[in-house]
Each structure stands twice: as structure tokens, then as C-alpha cells.
Amino acid sequence: MKYILLFIKTLLRVLLKPLSFLPAIIVMYCILNFSGQSGIDSAQLSYKVTQKLVILASDVTDKNLTQEEVRIYTEKYHYYVRKLAHFSEYMILAITVAFPLYVYGMRGIWLMLFAGAFCVGFACLDEYRQSFSIGRSPSKKDVMIDSCGVFVGIIITRIVGFIGRKTIFAPLAKRR
Asked: What pLDDT is recorded for position 71?
């Protein structure tokens, strides 16, 4: 029975480990989909998101903003929501790229360098690709914001991996 369980665990690892890259592929597809939008479509989408956030904040704080006040706040924070979206999507990309590398045994500075270079390179290519979309242009500022998101994502992955190794997966590490 012990050997059957060991075989099943080994089989699951062999089958599931390569699938750990699937979230990164999905996130890259989503990023490319967003950057492939025209300038007008992208601005409208982020404006709607900003507007919903302002309304949500108004409801949570019981401010009961008027439509005019919602419009003013939406226009005021629209730029920041767009930049936060850049930061967030690349932070998620870095986590989805770094975690499978971590699972495959890449640690320390090599994890940071490889995952970071991959994600920042993807950000550069994405900005270049964006220049072919109507009403869009590449921005070095966006690449810098994306890079900050990548850095935070890799740090989060390292922290979670370290905590996991010291707590949940400590028995597995001792067996090796």
C-alpha cells in the first residue's frame, strides 16, 4: 500500500508540475488582450472601473455622492486606477511566473533574476506591441510601473515560499 501511495504522489507531481505554468500563460493572454484594445476602448473600460470604485467608496463611507461628485472623483482618480492596473497585472504575472519556477527548485537571486527579466521583457514587448493599436503608444513610465509590480510579485512569491518551507512543507523538506 505504501508503494502505491508513493507511486500516485509521484505520478501527480509529474503530471501537475508542468501545469503550474498555465496561470502565467492565462495572465499573459489577458495582458495582451488588454493592451490590444484601442485607446478609446481601454480608456472607457478603466473609466467605468474607476467610476464603480468611486461609487463603492461612497457607499462604504456613507458619503452619498451626487452624480456630479462621482464624475469629478472619477476623473480625478482615473489616471491612478490605470497605473494601479498596470502594477497589479504585472505583480500577478510575476507571481504566476515565479511560483512554478520556485516549485521546480529555482531559489534566491536566480529566481529573482530569471522571473524578473522574463516579466520585464514581456512588459517591454507588450508596450511595443501596444504601439500598433489605434490610439495607443508605448510608454517608458508604464514599463517602470510594470517593473515595480514584477518586483513586488517576486518578493511575495519568495516570502510565501519561505513561510511554506518553514511551516506546511517542512516535513517534506526534512525527508529529502
From this structure: 93
Amino acid letter, 63: K
Tens-place pLDDT, residues 108-150: 889 899 999 999 999 999 999 988 888 888 889 999 999 999 9
pTM comes to 0.82
Cα 29 to Cα 38: distance, rounded to the nearest angstrom:
16
Class of residue 150 by CB neighbours under 10 A (exposed 0-12, middle 13-18, buried 19+): buried
Cα diameter, the chain: 70
Q: Which of 101, 120, 119 is nearest to 158 (CA)?
A: 101
Nearest to 158 by CA among 108, 122, 110: 108
